[in-house]
């Protein structure tokens, strides 16, 4: 009878340890997911800001457009 009780207790303890380790892994997984979401948002905002800045720079450039004529093309090819 005593051996049966000891076996049951050891089984219960092993199940409890498995459950606590699974909960720990779930918690770690959720923390990594939160970190990944945060990094994804930061990278998205960096991309949006740099895209808008570059597009603004390209659209509002005051430099004269390059003039390509036949004379320029001939002088470059020789």
UniProtKB/TrEMBL annotation:
Gene3D superfamilies, sorted: Neurotransmitter-gated ion-channel transmembrane domain
Transmembrane segments: 42-60
Record flagged with keyword Transmembrane helix: yes
BP GO terms, sorted: monoatomic ion transport
GO cellular component assignments: membrane
UniProt keyword terms in alphabetical order: Membrane, Transmembrane, Transmembrane helix
Stated name of the protein: Neur_chan_memb domain-containing protein
Source organism per UniProt: Caenorhabditis elegans
